[in-house]
Amino acid sequence: MPGTQAEPGRTAGGSVSATASRPNDILADYDQGLYYDELFGLRDAPVDHTALIRQRLSSLDFEDLRRRLQDAERELYNLGITFLVYSNKDAVDRILPFDVIPRVISAKEWAHLEAGINQRVTALNLFLKDVYHDQKILKDGVIPAELVLGNANYRPQMIGLDVPFDTYIHIMGVDLVRDRHGTFRVLEDNGRVPSGVSYVVENRHMMQRVFPDLMQDIGIRPVDNYGHKLLEAMYEIAPHQNDPQVALLSPGTYNSAYFEHIFLAREMGVPLVEGRDLVVDNDRVYMRTTDGLARVDSIYRRIGDDFLDPKAFNPDSLLGVPGIMEAYRKGNIALANAIGTGVADDKAVYCYVPRMIKYYLDQEAIIPNVDTRICREGDALQYTLDHLEELVIKPVGEAGGYGITIGPRATKAELDDCRAKLLADPSNYISQPVVDLSVCPTVTPDGIEPRHVDLRPFAITGKSTWVLPGGLSRVAMKKGTLIVNSSQGGGSKDTWVLEGTAP
């Protein structure tokens, strides 16, 4: 629970106390504004669980902090921990900007988030089983049938196909935001090909090398076992349980997350393959090796449905494996994530997840959604048009922060363009209120300043669900911006989940 006692150097209201501040306190002039701060809490109610970390940070020299940051960035570059930005014609790869001040989550908070993520993954897997089998939720009118059956990511090829443990989403990233009152909310679900977990693990390694003095005796839950947990799930779903062969299927070196593909294959100790390395013979999948063909039983795919099998989906795809869909239908290969999961992380379907949770589990959502309006509905469209300058408008099929209009920060020309697009194709958009994302102290050229952050925890599901403690904290490196996406200039922080039991 938040405490009420102000720490040295700051008043209870969050501003600096001139008499109490120390000359070497790098946090003395820090002002979180009106936002919830991940290190300090609310302005009038500081949190207790970060007190020791704040004390250690305050005693650091700012120039030393900047030197450590530069060392970290140099090491990231040397290790090849990069991110491909398609929109930047002047660069191919760049490092993901990294900030050395961590984002810290208490054991109690994490227990709440872990339960909410587990609940959400469970409901979404039940939903996917239902819509590819009996479609009860559609027949009962809980979700509009046309929203699902007419969705571009709905795959009729999956109708009637049973998957191990009824698990469709094996790897899921849930994007969470915290509002100015400190309440976590789900912003969107990522159940197709979620990325970013490699930065979670590498950020921790980086902090252990650069900041061992800050981490000493804090009690932080480890993240190093993600590869082991993923491999374990891939073994569980394999059709052949006698020494199954797992592989990671990548679209290749020009994919924006190719570093992550290499990282995860290494962490699991499995081959990294491309479509050309695999062949289907007699509805079984084999990998080309120097010793001939070797059977593959389970594939963690980082290729979207459209490009996976030119015989079943996009006939022009050169990235996939011809015939793999038929091998999948006959149960000769396991795929994670399952084909057709995209219908569950559509931004319009997202609005109905709390209803899914109630329908399938008879529970209220532990982590609420951000209030969302589906513009395909007349009332929602009219409200959005009437309040355009107050809302965030998102295309349902885009990712990476592309296509978003943030009303309060948009120009008149941008609002007019958004209005025209809404009227032309309302079913392609949702609208949400602007969430005042929480902030975290961040190293900038001008000192320690607040920057907005979100959180993407990762869940792995085989027989059961395991949630990686923490997740990817993305940070909007540009002052004032709310867009944290890597493709839009955002960076990342290490996320510390503190050990201990939640009361």
TrEMBL record:
Residue ranges constituting the Circularly permuted ATP-grasp type domain according to the UniProt record: 102-476
Family matches, as SUPFAM superfamilies: Glutathione synthetase ATP-binding domain-like
Top-rank lineage group of the source organism: Bacteria
PANTHER family cross-referenced by the UniProt entry: BLR5612 PROTEIN (PTHR34595), SLL1039 PROTEIN (PTHR34595:SF7)
Identification of the protein by name: Circularly permuted type 2 ATP-grasp protein
Organism of origin: Azospirillum oleiclasticum
Lineage: Bacteria, Pseudomonadati, Pseudomonadota, Alphaproteobacteria, Rhodospirillales
